[in-house]
Specification:
Alpha-Beta Plaits, Rossmann fold, Cyclic-di-GMP_PDE-like, cyclic-guanylate-specific phosphodiesterase activity, alpha/beta, Beta-Lactamase, Diguanylate cyclase, 23 helices, PAS-like_dom_sf, 8-stranded mixed barrel, GGDEF_dom, globular, 4 domains, 23% strand
Length: 679
């Protein structure tokens, strides 16, 4: 399941607070959920239609709806919904009872990590089952179309399972002299091979039975039903017939000799295999990698600064230059290594039977062979260098396009670092690379904090119903070596390394500095407060001190935190909100409205602004359920004297609907692109 997918969860519980607590735990764990709670059978049946849940979290001791009844209702609905029993403790008895009642899994209500893991596990399993069903439907449709194409094809095609014919089209029957398929059904392909080729073909069948991949093509003499013999070219590919794996065989009469066929597979200039034939060879290697073979690699090689080299030697000498380069490459390679020309000046190499640790040695030898030679090009002699990008092939990247893309990315990395070097993609090294990347970002963040390398942007929050003053939200960026870095990249790193409080204080300090300047006297700023800062008992005093030092009225500072963070840290949120109120600051709740009873939070945290969750605004013009929900939230907010803000508004139709619903403010790139304020 995609990381940003919303998981629809139906709670079966008597106590609302219990469900609210679980929702907050999941959201704080990074899981986007759309919840609903029911307490009896009628509510459950209604929620099945209105919510369409992915998961049901049920407390076995619910008063009006036992766990077994929940399982019965899910079964009767004929829907694929995972039932998870939510337990206060787990022992042998409760575990057995939960599974006997029909639960697919059990989760501990008080163990956030275990609960998060179970929810993700069941959501991903559901996503996988749905994907399988889609694939099965697509496969059935593909098989239907293949059957239609097979029957209408003029190419002789047969399907063979364990050496026996299971399907053949009319063209195949006519080529071999049969009138109907019944004459060869169950007959082995070996029976159609001329006597001089039976021994070799029998060996091929034995290799296929051991799971080895078939050759892409095979020259063979076949015999017809009337005893006639003809030269044929058999093209093999993996297929399936009625759900069973088999071979698809296309039979072509030999109309050209082998030497001509070989020429068609070769590049005229270099004599290497051409790109088309190499892709076929790489496909076979990928199939073997998918079965666990881990001694293969694909390399892309290009001469460095090729355009300037051509300028020096002239276009007429390019072919000679490429042939000289090929000589150096082939001098290093050995069977079964295969080199091919891949582009105008690029080459590709398939290494087989080489352990991954030896690939680096070969890459070094290739670079030395190229760099250490002087190429004689008529009136010119020159030395060149080259760069190599490679992908070590294994089960994790057993895909032709992926392997070539990875090698291409590594080639660009090597060229970007100056050339005359190689870079290899190693799937097994990804975890180490991720750890190194995290360390680099951590150091960059510490440096940005120490030297003020953060940048403040602002986005106006537009009043729909009229308002005094101007309001903007402050948005943070980091000044990186390649340009500005968005918070979605560096903030997760900051959270892992405990840097969020320091970053929050940096933003607050900048906000107060801006508010103290003459150009922002009538401006107010939304400023996000992270959970660690919410827990900081000294933060409010620090804010008060900075406001007094700058002579800034606290009402211009709108401190914003997420609804689910408040639910999880209610006591800390109450304390902080009271302290902020005392400073004159206003408060905002972000991602509001997705809880089971979001407005109950206002009894504890008296927020001035309610920022609607993004999910309500997405596709608002076409989603009538979201329109209804927005109207309900706005009506309740107005009854309590609260302002509402709709974020991520991206089209004029949504603005019109939000205005009609009574929303106070809108925010989004449609109204105002973020602008840089200060650094």
């Amino acid at each position: 399941m995609k990381q940003d997918s919303v998981i629809k969860i139906l709670f079966v519980a008597d106590v609302l607070e219990h469900a609210e607590q679980i929702i907050s735990q999941l959201r704080n764990g990074g899981i986007a959920v759309r919840p609903a709670r029911v307490g009896n059978e009628a509510e459950f049946l209604a929620a099945l239609d209105s919510l369409g849940p992915d998961l049901v979290l049920a407390v076995p001791g619910a008063r009006d709806l036992a766990l077994a009844d929940v399982a019965r209702l899910i079964g009767a609905s004929a829907r694929d919904i995972a039932l998870v029993a939510l337990l206060d403790h787990i022992d042998a008895t409760t575990l057995a009872q939960a599974f006997r009642s029909g639960a697919r899994a059990v989760a501990l209500a008080g163990n956030t990590e275990q609960l998060r893991g179970i929810v993700l596990q069941e959501a991903e399993a559901l996503s996988a089952r749905r994907a399988v069903r889609r694939l099965e439907a697509a496969l059935r449709e593909a098989n239907r179309r293949c059957d239609a194409l097979l029957d209408s094809s003029r190419d002789p095609i047969a399907y063979v399972h364990e050496g026996m014919h299971v399907r053949a089209n009319q063209a195949y029957l006519e080529m071999l002299g049969f009138e109907e398929f019944a004459e060869i059904e169950g007959q082995t392909l070996l029976d159609l091979v001329a006597e001089d080729g039976t021994e070799d073909f029998r060996g091929l069948l034995k290799r296929l039975s051991r799971g080895e991949p078939p050759p892409a093509r095979l020259d063979l003499r076949l015999k017809r039903a009337d005893g006639g013999v003809f030269d044929a070219l058999l093209e093999f590919s993996q297929a399936a017939f009625e759900g069973e794996p088999c071979l698809q065989i296309i039979v072509r009469r030999q109309v050209v000799d082998k030497s001509l066929l070989e020429q068609l597979q070769r590049d005229i200039v270099t004599g290497l295999y051409n790109r088309t034939h190499f892709i076929d060879l790489l496909g076979s290697a990928v199939t073997e990698a998918g079965k666990g073979r881990n001694d293969q690699a694909v390399l892309l090689l290009e001469p460095d600064h090729f355009a300037s080299v051509v300028d020096r030697v002239g276009i007429s000498n390019v072919d000679t230059l490429l042939r000289g380069l090929v000589e150096r490459i082939q001098g290093v390679l050995a069977p079964p290594d295969i080199a091919a020309r891949f582009s105008d000046h690029g080459f590709v190499i398939l290494l087989r039977g080489r352990p991954h640790e030896s690939v680096q040695v070969l890459c070094t030898a290739l670079l030395q062979a190229i760099n250490g030679a002087i190429l004689d090009l008529g009136n010119h002699s020159l030395a060149i260098t080259a760069s190599i990008g490679g992908s070590l092939m294994g089960e994790k990247n057993a895909n032709t396009a992926a392997a070539l893309d990875q090698a291409g990315n590594m080639l660009r990395n090597a060229q970007g670092e100056g050339g005359n070097r190689f870079a290899l993609y190693d799937p097994a090294a990804q975890e180490r690379a991720e750890a190194d990347k995290d360390k680099r970002w951590h150091n960059l963040l510490r440096d940005a904090l120490a030297h003020g390398r953060f940048v403040i942007f602002h986005q106006q929050v537009i009043a729909l119903l009229g308002s005094e003053g101007s309001i903007s939200e402050l948005l943070l960026r980091m000044d990186g070596a390649q340009g500005l870095v968005l918070p979605g990249i560096f903030m997760p790193v900051a959270a892992r390394h405990g840097l969020l409080p320091a970053i929050d204080r940096w933003v607050l300090r900048e906000a107060i500095r801006l508010l103290s300047s003459s150009g922002f006297s009538q401006q107010s700023f939304f400023v996000k407060i992270s959970t660690p800062s919410l827990l900081d008992e000294k933060l409010a005093d620090w804010i008060g001190e900075k406001l007094r030092e700058s002579s800034v009225d606290g009402q211009h500072l709108i401190l914003e935190f997420q609804e689910n963070e408040v639910v999880t840290n209610l006591k800390h949120a109450q304390r902080f909100s009271q302290q902020a109120r005392a400073l004159g600051c206003r408060l905002a709740l972000e991602r509001f409205g997705v809880g089971l009873n979001s407005f109950r939070l206002l009894d504890h945290v008296d927020a001035d602004f309610l920022k609607l969750d993004r999910s309500f605004v997405n596709d608002l013009a076409r989603n009538t359920e979201n329109q209804r929900r927005v109207r309900e939230i706005v009506q309740q907010a107005q009854a309590r004297g609260k302002e509402t803000v709709a974020e991520w508004v991206e089209d004029v139709n949504s603005v019109s609907l939000l205005f009609a619903a009574g929303v106070s403010y809108v925010q989004g790139n449609f109204q105002h692109e973020p602008e840089r304020l200060a650094s």
